[in-house]
Amino acid sequence: MPTGVHLRDARQQLFDAAERVLLRAGPHGLTSRAVTDEAGCAKGVLHRHFTDFDAFLTELVLDRAAQLETRASELRESAGAGTVADNLTSALTTLFGPVPVAIIPLVTFRDELRARLRQARPGGGITILAQATAAISAYLADERDLGRIAADADIDSLTLSLVGGGHLLFADRDLGAPAPAIVNKLVTTVLADVVQRRPR
């Protein structure tokens, strides 16, 4: 086994390897040995960069959550353009892509990982779901301010319906991602009342 993974590339190489293992084998198959085997490096490489495997997983989840923050910013920038339903359909498809959906059961599965994530992001709940919730809530508030949804729309309830329903649609990885039309139907059903009424 090669042991000379370059320091600058080691973290990303290990994160990418963990992502591939997680997508292929699920949270039960994600072990330090599986990650280093997938990365093609000695097991000691992981432990040279992280204090333990839960520290590695915490950094992995935070790294992938940071990527979602970029996508969340793109959603907010779309406020006022296109249609609200199309913007949210696209956002749900991105926010609940294969990697985020695979990370959710990983966080649920490992108590120590959840505890470390709470320390890193107090009040954040389950990372990824919290990211999606914050992104969609902020976007809906922006659209309400622009008058594209009703002024008295209950943003919290709409967000919970979209995030919960979206997660359920994407949760079964064996079936693959739902068709965009199915996601759009969920979104238009949730928003039906607030986009049809005139703001007061």
SSE topology sketch:
Blueprint: H1 7-25, H2 32-39, H3 43-49, H4 53-77, H5 84-95, H6 98-109, H7 111-120, H8 129-145, H9 155-170, H10 180-196
Helix pairs in contact: 1-2, 4-5, 4-7, 4-8, 5-8, 5-10, 8-9, 9-10
Give the tags.
mainly alpha; single chain; 2 domains; disordered N terminus; 200 residues; Tetracycline Repressor, domain 2; Arc Repressor Mutant, subunit A
End-to-end separation in angstroms reads 67 Å
Major sheet details:
none
Total domain units? 2
Output mean pLDDT: 84
**Roughly what percent helix?**
over 70%
* Bulk shape: elongated
- Count of individual beta strands: 0
N-to-C SSE series? HHHHHHHHHH
Radius of gyration, taken over Cα atoms and rounded to an integer in Å: 19 Å
* CATH architect. name of the largest domain: Orthogonal Bundle
Could you give a quick summary of the protein structure above?
The protein contains 10 helices and no strands. By secondary structure, it is mainly alpha-helical. The chain folds into 2 domains: 1-49, Arc Repressor Mutant, subunit A; 64-196, Tetracycline Repressor, domain 2 (Orthogonal Bundle), CATH 1.10.357.10.
